[in-house]
Amino acid sequence: MTDKQVWLITGAGRGMGIDIARAALTAGHAVVGTARNAASITDALGERDDLLAVPLDVTDPPAAEAAVAAAVDRFGRLDVLVNNAGSFYAGFFEEMTPEDFRAQIETTLFGPVNVTRAVLPQMRAQRAGLVVTISSTAGIASTGDFLTAYAASKFGVEGFMEGLTTEVAPFGIKTMLVEPGFFRTELLTPQSTSYAKPSIDDYAERTRATVQAWQGMDGKQGGDPAKLAEALVKLVALDEPPLRFAAGADAVGLFEAKAQSLLEQANAYRELSSSLGHDDA
After folding, report:
1. CA–CA distance, 255 with 105 (Å, rounded to integer)
2. What are the residue numbers of the active site?
3. Domains of the chain
4. Looking at the chain, which terminus has fewer C-beta neighbours within 10 angstroms, N or C?
5. Is 28 exposed, middle or buried (0-12, 13-18, 19+ CB in 10 A)?
6. Burial call 141-159: b when 16+ CB within 10 Å, e when fewer
7. Rounded Cα–Cα distance for residues 140 and 150 (Å)
8. pLDDT in tens, 147-180
9. What sign does the CA torsion over 46, 33, 86, 24 have?
10. In terms of pTM, does the model score above 0.90?
11. Kind of pairing, strands 30-35 and 6-9?
């Protein structure tokens, strides 16, 4: 890759997407920022020669192809994709409508799938590129209530990126998963979080408590998204970016706890697990 790279960042109109775009621009890169409302990008970052704002709903594959075409038309290449756009459909599984569960998957799993599919032909032709996908610690371990749909989408993203890594490596394309813990983004605001309508008495008390807890956390998360954005710029510049990056001290702790849990589960029934092969194998 050249020192000056061309980044395509989804969800660049608010929250962490703005911070990532600003950090990339500050580092001297060109940015193609996408959002459902492209004007929100220039409202936040201003008009710049190295910034192209493009409208994009990540659930729309033709729109993703158009965004990539616009990027290449403007800057001639595309070096870094940051799959950042997201949403949060929160609620107990039984109370969440099938439509809302599917909407979560469409945005936070198929969104990255759609945009990555649109980007890869350009990167493959260049024989270079990096696909960065903002996942979540919820893609490593689901550690609380209201996370069934969100964790399902993020676990899917983890598997998608892991599987993709070896497929595109021969073309000089790399991947990096980023698993943030709790950062002070806009994910828990009413614009990004939708709560399932309470409908089952057995869940009523826990629903009230969980909604109150999530709402009370908004704006008080410990992680600084501007620092995460600066860290991403540093990681992208490496010759070998990490396959996974635990973003935040809480993320590091969760990685360690999950690894220990998996070891304990592997050992718990080791003898039985190891006895399941054919006798002549």
Report:
1. 23
2. 135, 150, 154
3. 6-252 (3.40.50.720)
4. C
5. exposed
6. bbeebbbbbbbbbbbbbbe
7. 12
8. 999 999 999 999 999 999 999 999 999 999 999 9
9. negative
10. yes
11. parallel
